[in-house]
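Re: the request from the purification team.
They wanted to know what the chain is likely to look like in 3D before they choose a buffer screen. I agreed to run a prediction and write the result into the notebook, where they can find it.
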Amino acid sequence: FRTKDHPKAKGVDFSISFPVSWSKHEGLRPNVIQLFRNSVGHGPIMCTLTVSPFPAGFKPTTEELNEFFQPNNLKKSFPDGSSLIDVKEIKVEGLPAAIVISDQIQEGLDLKLEIRATSLMIIYESSMISIQFMVTEKPDSTDTLDDLQEHFLPTFRAIASTFVLNDLYKANSISVDGLPSREPSVPPDNRV
């Protein structure tokens, strides 16, 4: 899947690959680009791709980036009733990023769902890119959120490892005639 020219991507061009057995559909909320679900849309894993802009004109400083993924700062951005399980600061494509694991309760109509979310959060220019994997406990199962997290973490990591921020390769790609290309080169392994 590629976000190039998608209106909800806010100009950010990235690619990520999902297994062919995962269903996909457009997100209904303003910043949700696409939703994916395993087992042709009937499995326990859902993934959302979002791009959320920072306020107009705001570009975080190096100090702000260093503080952004600190657990105390991240707790403030989660809804009430959420529990921050773990935060691991990383780099993705050389950019500041984190893997954030949290538990959330979502309620709607007569449903109450407990969700374990594993989010890959990446700061790029003046936007936050989020790839969020979610699993829910099934009412008829003895599997806990911890069990589901452990079972599906390799799948999350395999998908997240296909992330390519195509914008980073525009200036460095070389065209057929040897001159710098204005278009990004196609990432390897058909990750478009």
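For the purification team: The two ends are 6 Å apart (CA to CA).
Please add any questions underneath this entry.
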